[in-house]
């Protein structure tokens, strides 16, 4: 009876305070979970913004490549000036909304320490204000009169001169990540070694993809020291989109327009052989100290040269050749057929051999999600447009069959309503076909950007080892992305389960701490809260 009466009694102030504390702790736990989720989303958006900014810079380099009529692209493709200008207009034909979005994206602040090695006061002010640099300049406090303003202007001019000198002295990110001489952008006529970018030996020669140790040493001497080349290898994975920027800044590979499947396969096999030899030399424990940078440069040069060739084929719209090359045995030129279970086991084995870090896997999975969404939107629009084009073509063919008997009369009265409607339909169909070509090129560029992002997340040794272990077929980065994404999802599920178990343990501990203590006395059972 005493126990029942004690249960029915009103709560004391201490008990009410304890219940309020428990409720506040629960609310605090929910708020902490929401904060961690928002923080994770912010980090993901910042990383995606960095990738999109890199893609925008690469597209600007491609636009500079396509702007001059009769340039390297038109010379390699064998097109005239008018065709080159039309191709450039179709490839880089941004609408007004897309151009505004691109400008806004480039002006967004990016809070990433890896994007710049030296702090910049103007960029910091712009980031803090989140607006235009003019607004940041107008927000600076005014001290003194005319003399103080002139002094500040002199200081700003001196700072700008120092920053310009530092930028001119420091190599660009592309030069830092790629110190070897693959050829310069079209505005630079020749490299320091005296070889023009357009004078690279044609890739149909099998030895054109082989870079000897002497050539690697010469490229190191002309581009930058061997220590800087080794440091550049470490800096490349921190900016995965720099590979795309470099490839789009180069002219088209000579003779890429007329390359056959056999020549492409021979070039790839020779490249993989040279990379395998270089990796074997790097794995030797008793190698001389000075040979490490030269051998590493050999790996970099072979991989980047073949990436240059693939990007040239893609820009020349040789999609059938690339698709066939990705599905054959490079040694026998026969179709490579592998069951799905064996293919999955092969990808898992490759992941184990590459020994990707957790950061590499998460970066690859992040890029896969971003480019996957962009590709899905482009493919959906392309498929809808293909259905519309097919329906319009069928309707037009049916109308032609119906009016075939009166073709002469329709030609004589071309200004009639029926003839005008037919012309408008043909014009609309032509516009749809042009839009379809733009979407196909957009998909190709997005696929190229996704592959360059995945390759940029790997180190040069990992990328070379992936190419060697993937033989005889060409290494497919799609399988590597799927394997990395699945491992990231498994890791996230495991961490979520561990966090849930920890929360359950905390709740049990709190409940055990709030349980009342029962004591037995001569008068009965008394209950007291702990």
Q: What brief labels describe this structure?
A:
530 residues, 70% helix, 2% strand, extended, Mediator_comp_sub12, transcription coactivator activity, coiled coil
Question: What's the short story on this structure?
Answer:
The protein is an all-alpha fold and 530 residues long.
Describe what you observe in this structure.
With 530 residues, this protein is mainly alpha-helical. It has a domain at 173-347. Helix content is 70%, strand content 2%. It has helices at residues 2-8, 13-66, 72-77, 81-91, 96-107, 121-129, 133-138, 146-169, 173-177, 213-223, 226-235, 242-249, 261-282, 291-315, 319-325, 340-354, 358-402, 407-412, 417-457, 460-469, 477-514; strands at 517-521, 524-528. It has a two-stranded antiparallel sheet with strand order 1-2. β1 and β2 form a beta hairpin. It is extended and about 90 Å long. It starts with a helix and ends with a strand.
* Weakly predicted, low-confidence segments: 69-95, 110-148, 167-238
In what range is the share of β-strand residues?
under 5%
How much is the radius of gyration in Å? 32 Å
The computed structural class is mainly alpha
Which sequence of strands runs across the widest sheet?
Answer: 1-2
* Arithmetic mean of pLDDT: 68
Fraction of residues in H or I helices: over 70%
- Number of helical runs? 21
Gap from first CA to last CA: 22 Å
Order of helices and strands: HHHHHHHHHHHHHHHHHHHHHEE
The shape, in one word, is: extended
Annotation, overall tally of beta strands: 2
The largest β sheet comes out as: 2 strands, antiparallel
Biased composition (Low complexity): 153-167
Keywords: Coiled coil
InterPro entries: Mediator_comp_sub12
Coiled coil: 14-41
């Amino acid at each position: 009876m005493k126990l029942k009466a004690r249960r029915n009694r009103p709560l004391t102030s201490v008990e009410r305070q304890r219940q309020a504390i428990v409720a506040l702790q629960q609310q605090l736990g929910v708020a902490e979970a929401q904060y961690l989720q928002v923080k994770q989303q912010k980090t993901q958006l910042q990383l995606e913004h960095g990738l999109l900014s890199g893609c925008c810079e690469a597209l600007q380099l491609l636009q500079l490549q396509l702007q001059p009529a009769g340039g390297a692209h038109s010379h390699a493709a064998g097109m005239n000036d008018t065709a080159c200008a039309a191709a450039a207009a179709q490839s880089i034909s941004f609408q007004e909304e897309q151009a505004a979005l691109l400008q806004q994206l480039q002006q967004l602040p990016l809070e990433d320490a890896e994007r710049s090695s030296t702090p910049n006061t103007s960029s910091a002010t712009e980031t803090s204000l989140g607006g235009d640099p003019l607004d940041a300049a107008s927000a600076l406090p005014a001290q003194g009169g005319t003399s103080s303003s002139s002094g500040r202007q002199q200081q700003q001019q001196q700072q700008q001169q120092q920053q310009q000198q530092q930028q001119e002295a420091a190599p660009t990110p592309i030069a830092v990540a790629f110190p070897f001489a693959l050829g310069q952008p079209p505005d630079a006529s020749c490299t320091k070694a005296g070889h023009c970018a357009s004078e690279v030996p044609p890739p149909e020669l099998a030895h054109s993809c082989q870079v000897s140790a002497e050539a690697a040493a010469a490229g190191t001497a002309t581009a930058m020291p061997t220590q800087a080349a080794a440091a550049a290898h470490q800096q490349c994975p921190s900016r995965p989109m720099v590979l795309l920027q470099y490839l789009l800044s180069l002219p088209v590979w000579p003779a890429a327009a007329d390359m056959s499947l056999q020549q492409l396969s021979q070039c790839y096999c020779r490249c993989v052989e040279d990379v395998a030899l270089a990796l074997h030399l790097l794995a030797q424990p008793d190698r001389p100290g000075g040979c490490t940078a030269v051998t590493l440069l050999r790996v970099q040069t072979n991989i980047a040269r073949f990436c240059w060739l693939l990007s040239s084929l893609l820009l020349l719209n040789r999609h059938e050749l690339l698709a066939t090359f990705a599905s054959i045995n490079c040694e026998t030129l026969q179709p490579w057929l592998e069951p799905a279970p064996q293919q999955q086991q092969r990808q898992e084995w490759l992941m184990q051999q590459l020994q990707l870090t957790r950061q590499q896997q998460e970066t690859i999975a992040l890029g896969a999600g971003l480019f996957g969404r962009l590709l899905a939107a482009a493919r959906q629009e392309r498929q809808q447009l293909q259905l519309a084009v097919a329906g319009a073509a069928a309707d037009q063919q049916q109308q032609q069959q119906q009016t075939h008997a009166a073709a002469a009369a329709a030609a004589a009265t071309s200004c009639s309503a029926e003839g005008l409607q037919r012309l408008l339909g043909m014009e609309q169909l032509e516009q749809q076909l042009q839009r379809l070509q733009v979407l196909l090129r957009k998909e190709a560029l997005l696929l190229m950007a996704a592959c360059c992002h995945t390759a940029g997340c790997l180190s040069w040794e990992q990328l070379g080892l992936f190419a060697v272990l993937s033989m005889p077929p060409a290494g497919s980065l799609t399988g590597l992305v799927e394997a990395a994404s699945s491992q990231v999802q498994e890791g996230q599920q495991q961490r979520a389960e561990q966090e849930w178990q920890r929360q359950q343990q905390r709740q049990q501990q709190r409940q055990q701490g709030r349980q009342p203590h029962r004591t037995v006395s001569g008068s009965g059972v008394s209950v007291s809260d702990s």
